[in-house]
Amino acid sequence: MTLIPILVLALGTFAFRFGGVMLRERVTMPEHLRELLSTSAIVLLVALVATSSLAKGPSFAGWALPAGVLVGGVLAWRKAPFVVVVAAAAATAALLRLAGVA
Asked: What is the distance between the alpha carbons of residues 64 and 93, in angstroms, rounded to a whole number?
């Protein structure tokens, strides 16, 4: 029963991506719209990171989780390898929780 929705979503994703490739040469966007779309993608990503790192359910997640996200963000910004970013972020949050920082 679950296979049908998965196939429908897979076909929809493929059609959406294929349509983008096929229409790339036919559709032109003004430069200000391209800049707006680029900015909106960044804003959406920042909002996602903020809500997932600061809130756990209806309450504040504590200081360990945002600190781990901050460490991971700084390492990613400094172009550290992905494994190092994830390990350092997880270790930071775990050590802070072990130290009693909620």
From this structure: 5
**What is d(CA 38, CA 79) in angstroms, rounded to the nearest whole number?**
21
Nearest CA-CA partner of 54 in 32, 69, 35: 69
Cα separations in angstroms, 51 against 19, 33, 43, 58, 79: 32, 27, 12, 11, 24
Q: How far is CA 57 from CA 11, 50, 54, 87, in A?
A: 33, 13, 10, 24
pLDDT over 80 at 1, yes or no: no
Which has the closest alpha carbon to 48: 30, 28, 73?
A: 73
The CA-based angle 21-22-26, given to 5 degrees, is: 110
With beta carbons less than 8 A apart as the criterion, state whether 75 and 37 touch.
Answer: no
102 pLDDT band, cuts 50/70/90, is confident
Burial class (CB in 10 A: 0-12, 13-18, 19+), 86: middle
